[in-house]
């Protein structure tokens, strides 16, 4: 069996650890956050079931990199969530995508680039070292489109 202990002496800042010790390294680190949304769409110029109006529970995965700050964080996960909620999800969740997004065929391939661009623009205003490294958009649990920073910058 495992032995469990109760922490009796909770580490305290400026007693057990100093503020200058909170940052462990100066390396770039990738953090990732996932979200889901439900939406309806249909595809134009497509011969198959997806030409009809239908819906998905999409999953979005963001990979954001940067250098750790003075307390050892790249970006607070809550900040990524706030950008998602206020600037991206409002256009997607429980929406008819053909109506909400710019004029495009609402394929996962087109949508993932739009989502990348929205997150990239939002992060540019926060800190210079932030980079969106990738975005994955799952249309089903086994099918997704992905875009990566290097592809977006070199195209």
TrEMBL record:
Report the cofactors. Answer: Zn(2+)
The answer to whether the entry has keyword Lyase is yes
Q: Which GO terms describe its molecular function?
A: 6-carboxytetrahydropterin synthase activity
**Pfam families the UniProt entry points to:** PTPS
Q: Which UniProt keywords apply?
A: Lyase, Metal-binding, Zinc
Which SUPFAM superfamilies does the record associate with it? Tetrahydrobiopterin biosynthesis enzymes-like
According to the UniProt entry, what is the EC number of this protein? 4.1.2.50
Reactions catalysed, semicolon-separated, are: 7,8-dihydroneopterin 3'-triphosphate + H2O = 6-carboxy-5,6,7,8-tetrahydropterin + triphosphate + acetaldehyde + 2 H(+)
Q: Which residues form the signal peptide?
A: none
Q: In which pathway does it act?
A: Purine metabolism; 7-cyano-7-deazaguanine biosynthesis
Q: Does the keyword Metal-binding apply?
A: yes
User: Family per UniProt?
Assistant: Belongs to the PTPS family. QueD subfamily.
Q: What is this protein called?
A: 6-carboxy-5,6,7,8-tetrahydropterin synthase
Organism of provenance: Halobacillus seohaensis
List the taxonomic lineage. Bacteria, Bacillati, Bacillota, Bacilli, Bacillales
* Encoding gene per record: queD
